[in-house]
Amino acid sequence: MDDHRAQVEELLADYRRSREQLASVQRELAAVSGQASSPDGTVAATVGSGGKLVGLELSEMAYRRHRPEQLAELIVRTVAAAAASAAEDTYQTLSAVLPASTDPAALVAGTADLKPSEYAPDDTETVDLGHQSVRGRRDDDEDNEQRESWLDSELIDRRVR
Q1: Could you state, in chain order, the average pLDDT of each consecutive group of 10 residues for the chain (161 residues)?
Q2: A Pfam family matched by this chain, by name (predicted)?
Q3: Which of 24, 44, 74, 158 is found 20 to 30 A from 6 (Cα to Cα)?
Q4: Quick check: 74 and 58 in contact, CB under 8 A?
């Protein structure tokens, strides 16, 4: 009976250690952030855990140096760089507690060891291009015919008027 009780106590101690490790990892993941600045220093972005934008700074020169569409593109690129930095921190945090063969990026993406064909939605298909896989909407002939006939009738209606 004492042997059984000792095993139960050992299992409970393992469980408590695992929970504490999980809580520690969760705290580290919640604290993840990434920062990036544009090459010219006019844009600075900070993202938090999950890649959420939490800070964006634009210098006075940003408005003078860049046209609106250029500034918008620069902001998007800078935020993406900050998100990539935060993602790398996330992967490092997770890799410390995952088995060596587990890819933290795939785990975060929700794909783990699945192939694209195993997790692609039913209305998409994955085409392997060798260096990358591309997912796209599968053509549905009936749907395309309905769309085309609707468009044709709209065009005809406009011409008649």
Answers
A1: 88 92 89 95 94 95 95 97 93 86 82 73 58 53 48 47 46
A2: YbaB_DNA_bd
A3: 24
A4: no
C-alpha 109/C-alpha 104 separation (Å) is 9
For helices 68-95 and 2-30, what crossing angle results, to 10°?
160
The pLDDT of residue 158: 47
Assess contact for 120 and 126: CB atoms under 8 A.
yes
DSSP string, 86-112: HHHHHHHHHHTTS-TT--HHHHHHT-T
In angstroms, the CA 26 to CA 83 distance is 18
Matching CATH number, 31-111, of 3.10.150, 3.30.1310, 1.20.120, 3.30.9? 3.30.1310
